[in-house]
Amino acid sequence: MASDFDIKDSAEFSRIVPADAKVEKLADGLKFTEGPAWYQGRLIFSDIPASRLYEWTKAEGLKVIREQSNNANGNSVDRAGRLITCEHGSRRVTRTEADGAITVLADSFDGKRLNSPNDLVEKSDGTIWFTDPPYGLPWPDFKGKEQTGHFVFRLDPRDKSLAIVAHDLDMPNGLCFSPDEKQLYIADSGKPHHVRVFDVKPDSSLANGRVFCVIQPGGPDGMRVDADGRLYSTAGDGVHIFSPTGQLIGKILVPQTPANCCFGGEDGKTLFMTCRTGLYSIQLNTQAPAR
Ligand code: MG
Questions:
Q1: Reduced to 3 states, what is the DSSP secondary structure of residue 124?
Q2: What is the mean pLDDT of the chain?
Q3: Which of 291, 261, 259 is nearest to 273 (CA)?
Q4: Protein residues placing their CB within 5 Å of the ion ligand 1
Q5: Is 11 domain-assigned?
Q6: What range does the domain containing 133 cover?
Q7: Which of 9, 38, 98, 131 has fewest C-beta within 10 Å?
Q8: How far does the centroid of ligand 1 lie from the alpha carbon of residue 19, in Å?
Q9: Does 289 reside within a domain?
Q10: Positive or negative: CA dihedral 69, 71, 75, 79
Q11: What would the pLDDT profile of 162-189 be if each residue is shown by its tens digit?
Q12: What percent of the chain has a predicted confidence (pLDDT) above 70?
């Protein structure tokens, strides 16, 4: 359906999006959806203000899987298959163990509470990288903020140590690695409305941060890459797809503004999009990088 798309490079776009693909609404009536992750054969996501985690499956539709999620936001799955979660209300990053127990991986840095961890990604070495803007604190003065900045952290879950990897973003938000993990993309949803890309050095520090793309309308929030290194960034009007060099290939237009997206489904080629009160999807020809 042509009205679902705004195509800039038709040859490349047709490699990604099947000719008959269309945006489907899977669920609606929620408050503010975020944090999609493909977890144990189902799509799970957060409703931040409702303080719930949901799952969605084709067979059974929508189900609440956690009440009192502490206003969970971003979710991801580590290489051991465990859910890792950013929680706004409790200002921490947690891991859900196989038996359902919740392990706190990080809640402070330098003796001060985190702002409100927003989104996270695991690197293949087991470290978890997360952003910590103050969106979960009272607007506009962020009362109760203890950190001296809005940092991006590298967390080592083995000893729960934290290190700042980026400190010069206004509102660091979604983040993801390139398939070879030599680059890290970080969305800045504050004043700049752009995505920056950093080189990941062998010692896991970042270097050479530069603007990868500017997002308009709206700004970037959650992002994912596909196996060929294309970046899928949320934006005011949908999900924008960029080539690995930052060229806009086209947009998947969605009726509500998406805050995040992820690959999943039985063949891994469904892009799920959490969009304000609704959950949407589209079938693509692409999928997440192998891990
Ligand atoms: Mg976010």
A1: coil
A2: 97
A3: 261
A4: 118-119, 173, 221
A5: yes
A6: 2-283
A7: 98
A8: 30
A9: no
A10: negative
A11: 999 999 999 999 999 999 999 999 999 9
A12: 99
